[in-house]
Amino acid sequence: MFERMAFRSDVEDTVLTRSCSYDSSYEMVETPPGLTSLGAMKEELPQEEESPPQSVCCQPPLDKPTFQSMLDPDGRLVNEHALRKAVFRGGVDPTVRKDTWQFMFGLYPFLSTAREREVMSAEHHFKYHQLKARWKTLLTMSSLGKTEQEQGVSAEYLDDDLDLKVESFTDDADMKVPAMDTTNISTETQQQLQFLEIQAQVFAGRQPINMKDIRKAVRIIDKDVPRTDRGHEYFKGSGNPHLSILRNILITFAAFHPKVGYAQGMNDILSRFLVVLDSEVAAFWCFSSYMETIQTDFMEEGMLRKLNLVRQLLKELDTVLFNHLENCDVGDMTFCHRWLLLGFKREFPFEEALRLFEIISSHHMELSSLDVERVRDQERARDFLREGGQNRVVGAPLNTEYTFELFVCVAMLQNIRQQLLNCRDGTEIFQTVSGLSGKMDLAHILRKAETIFMSYCRKSVIDCFQIVE
């Protein structure tokens, strides 16, 4: 009776067997038919490369024809893995970014049909507007006799440098849900829409709401909104209505997500969704879905944990740089806080930051993925052949909490490694890191991050024991 251990190659599986008694005096290698020598295996295995053969940034962005080819006749996106891989390899072309993000950020399930998405779109419309109408109505009713600005239902910014006035929303019409266009639709469909609206009213009415928390959130939001991406065309200019939409979404989210509420930085995250989707309803739901995955980053414990992961990863990959940062009293990596919280938004131009955001959000290259396990299998095979069949290798456990964004952080630090090593104290390090904004080559950083990622995967493959002849 034998315990069988296998490693994969791009050809057939080669199986190592040993007795269950763990008797080290007995060991043999069974070679499948058609693979007669270690030399033959060496010829078949991929050659080692310094960087991945299909490195991120080396592929064209996902374009419209490719995206449409992933849909079946009913509109289902049947190969989620292929989509995420394409996004990771080259980002998304602006012509299809809106459609791609609607799947990636949870507005629609990947396997939903085009017809099902029409129904979901109506549900999203009614639910969002019912939620928004509810907090507006409650703010008005709880602050009778006060001005619109005092109620928090509207806001007016009179700063000379921020000439913005957000529309007033206190009339009866705004407390109702905007009607959907029912032109040229059947009576049956109209009845279905009316039913969806009733369901949305019930849904919104059942959500708990704390007026004290809402007013607190409104005060902070009204400080952040007029300073959000004002240099971008979408938010530029006096009286820009998109700022009003941004405000409404943020307050609606804060009102009905009391666990996380509103925190500074959420406006910067939401602005991306609003620019790409150009829809108040779609932006709200995609933003809400994304926030569910990162909400702990806006809590002290969650961000401290993520910074500690950056710290651990840097220590594993670059001990010299890690020790230098420790000696300068910045080993806690707090200078990475903004990078991680905003998805590197301030470190690159807006369009490049969008691309990095969608690449990271594709979650294609993660340490728990099949692609990573394939790399480790190949590395085990290489090490076995390199030793002429005299060593058996097994994989050390990977820390799957090391997400790709953490490798991007390490890549950015190693990109200015010598500058950081030349710094004499923490103040100089913070100044050096702060000066990175807008000065980095995104393609270079991404290639470096992936190379470091792959190196970590290979580094985790260790010698286990010697085969005794």
Short description:
With 469 residues, this protein is mainly alpha-helical. Helix content is 53%, strand content 6%.
Describe the structure.
The chain is mostly helical and 469 residues long. The chain has three domains: 1-45, no CATH class; 114-295, no CATH class; 299-469, Orthogonal Bundle (Cyclin A, domain 1), CATH 1.10.472. 53% of the residues lie in helices and 6% in strands. The chain is built from 20 helices and seven strands. It has helices spanning 38-44, 64-69, 80-90, 94-104, 114-141, 148-151, 187-205, 211-224, 241-256, 266-277, 280-294, 300-317, 319-327, 337-341, 350-361, 370-386, 404-415, 417-422, 426-434, 442-459, and strands spanning 2-7, 14-19, 28-30, 156-157, 164-165, 391-395, 461-466. The strands form three sheets. Strands 1-2-3 form a three-stranded antiparallel beta sheet. The chain has a two-stranded antiparallel ribbon with strand order 4-5. A two-stranded antiparallel ribbon has the order 6-7. A hairpin with a 6-residue loop joins strand 1 and strand 2 (14-19). Helix 5 (114-141) packs across helix 7 (187-205). The longest helix has 28 residues, at 114-141. The protein is globular and about 75 Å long. The model is unreliable at 1-54, 157-174 and 462-469 (pLDDT under 50). Keywords: GTPase activation. GO terms for molecular function: GTPase activator activity. It comes from Branchiostoma belcheri. This is TBC1 domain family member 17-like. InterPro entries: Rab-GAP-TBC_dom, Rab-GAP_TBC_sf.
